[in-house]
Design a protein that fits this description.
Blueprint: E1 17-19, E2 28-34, H1 38-53, E3 56-58, E4 67-72, H2 77-96, E5 101-105, H3 106-112, H4 115-118, E6 125-127, H5 135-143, E7 148-150, E8 173-177, E9 179-180, H6 191-195, E10 199-200, H7 203-215, E11 220-224, E12 232-233, E13 249-250, H8 251-259, E14 266-270, H9 279-287, E15 294-296, H10 304-309, H11 316-329, E16 334-341, H12 348-361, E17 365-370, H13 378-382, H14 389-412, E18 418-426, E19 433-437, E20 443-447, E21 456-464, E22 468-473
Parallel strand pairs: 2-3, 2-4, 4-5, 5-6, 6-7, 8-11, 11-14, 15-16, 16-17, 20-22
Antiparallel strand pairs: 1-2, 9-10, 12-13, 18-19, 18-21, 19-20, 21-22
Helix pairs in contact: 8-9, 12-14
The protein binds 5'-deoxyadenosine and iron/sulfur cluster (SF4).
């Protein structure tokens, strides 16, 4: 999946989220930690739901856990290192309490399979992203003294019928997975190996989940997929209808179905792919006010030769044409991106083209990474990881410096404007303030007045940093 959570490089892998669900009384306690992209956080909600049915209650207190599960990320090497360190800590706990079950889920489980059990003896249980329905059995197997593994990838598992347990109860914003897997084979990316083939989820179940979220007080959904533009239901990859008796749905149509749940429900989506993003998606964004004017469109590099080595399926010119179309069809749309620096064979001139593309596009926000070679990927098999570490570091700094300037300029342009903000809750820094996002996905902090979360408010922007807008209420 393209992109993850917060800012710059590996800081984004640092957001381990511990989750807890209130409610059902039970003697069995599950401690669940998630790493990596939004898809993993969303999957953890599916896992909590499957195990709740089996009598598990989630806990934030690791000391009372019967089962510890880590939902992991493999996208860069340091994401994996972090999880290994965490597993070593759990190993010490397990030595003290042999009954404790420690399991690993997600991309790292899929990538390393039995190795974590056999060679490193760090865990009791390994479950890949398509094996979560099997978790109750796997935990039972561990109880009978066996090591439990299920890393089978599926062609059709979408967990469509599972109502995810929302782990931030009383929340305003939720992720809804619309498709799983990826068929793109970008040469740097491990995701096609860890998450398997692309498959779309039945639109009826997606709309029902969004309606249910709205009824429970949620006011924002983010439709998630590794490449949302290739969402298709009842359509083959070539666009042929599979079952003539059933309607077909593409991504633009799905967005419309969700937008019609309520004008008070904001729709976001992630991630778009430049080679597949069509104008009908942009036109649908322009048509509905509640589809947020914000697109995350990972470029990865500004140079056509590098893009070719990355197997991205587009050129610099194609990408810039897509940007022009966004600006034309959805005026004022915010655009963010992912950039990898120091990919195999990247020359200084090629790096300069990434910087010049950034100047042309003026991204509102970017996630920026040093290339990290991943086992089994096309790049690992075909190319040398030959850009020295210090060169990668220096190029990354140049990219980050530029982006910080662009982010600040983008926020400064908003000073003096009035923005419609969805109130998310208290500001982290001040009890006298609330925070919420603009449609363009920028966080705004403003005085709390008598306002309540989950409602919309017009806020006048009076100041900013490169990350946050400061607003005042207008009467
Ligand atoms: N090295 C560095 N960054 C990577 N990404 C994916 N694979 C790698 C890798 N091997 C980045 C891409 C992608 C984002 C989720 O992570 O920019 O869009
Ligand atoms: Fe995203 Fe490409 Fe990886 Fe698919 S292969 S998840 S499109 S970076």
């Amino acid at each position: 999946m393209e992109s993850g959570n917060k800012v710059i490089d590996e800081a984004l892998q640092g957001t381990a989220l511990v989750i807890e669900q209130d409610g059902v009384q039970s003697s069995k306690k599950l401690y669940l930690e998630s790493y990596g992209c939004q898809m993993n956080f969303s999957d953890s909600e599916v896992v909590a739901s499957i195990l709740a049915q089996d009598g598990y209650q989630t806990t934030r207190n690791i000391e009372e856990a019967d089962v510890i599960l880590l939902n992991t990320c493999s996208i860069r090497d340091n994401a994996e290192q972090r999880v290994r360190n965490r597993l070593t800590e759990f190993k010490i706990k397990k030595d003290r309490n042999p009954e404790l079950v420690v399991g690993i889920l997600g991309c790292m489980a899929e990538r390393l399979k039995k190795n974590l059990l056999d060679e490193e003896k760090l865990v009791d249980l390994v479950a890949g992203p398509d094996a979560y329905r099997d978790l109750p059995n796997l935990i039972d197997e561990v109880g009978t003294g066996q090591k439990a593994v299920n890393v089978l990838l599926s062609r059709d598992e979408t967990y469509a019928d599972i109502a995810p347990v929302r782990l931030d109860q009383g929340g305003i914003s939720a992720f809804v997975t619309i498709m799983r897997g990826c068929d793109n084979m970008c040469s740097f990316c491990v995701v096609p190996f860890t998450r398997g083939r692309e498959r779309s989820r039945d639109p009826k179940t997606i709309v029902a989940e969004c309606q249910d979220l709205f009824d429970k007080g949620y006011r924002e959904v983010t439709l998630l997929g590794q490449n949302v533009d290739s969402y298709r239901w009842n359509l083959s990859a070539k666009g042929e209808v599979k079952n003539p008796a059933e309607p077909t749905t593409n991504f633009a149509q799905l967005m419309e179905m969700v937008a019609l749940v309520s004008p008070l429900l904001r729709i976001r989506f992630s991630t778009s792919h430049p080679k597949d993003m069509t104008n009908d998606v942009l036109e649908m964004m322009a048509k509905y006010e509640n589809i947020c004017p914000y697109i995350h469109l990972p470029v990865q590099s500004g140079n056509t030769d590098v893009l070719y080595r990355m197997n991205r399926g587009y050129s610099r010119e194609w990408y810039l044409e897509r940007i022009e179309s966004i600006r034309r069809i959805v005026p004022g749309c915010a655009i963010s991106t992912d950039i990898i620096t120091g990919f195999c064979g990247e020359t200084e001139e090629e790096h300069q083209e990434t910087l010049s593309l950034m100047d042309i596009v003026q991204y509102d926000f970017a996630y920026m990474f040093k290339y990290s070679e991943r086992p089994k990927t096309l790049a690992e098999r075909r190319f040398d990881d030959d850009v020295p570490e210090e060169v990668k570091g220096r190029r990354l700094n140049e990219i980050i410096d530029k982006q910080l300037k662009h982010s600040l300029a983008s926020n400064q342009r908003m000073i003096g404007t009035v923005q419609k903000v969805l109130i998310e809750g208290p500001s982290k820094r001040s009890e006298e303030h609330l925070c919420g996002r603009t449609g363009t996905n920028v966080m705004v902090v403003f005085p709390k007045g008598n306002l309540v979360k989950g409602t919309y408010i017009d806020v006048k922007i009076i100041d900013c940093t490169s990350a946050t807008l400061i607003g005042e209420l207008i009467s």
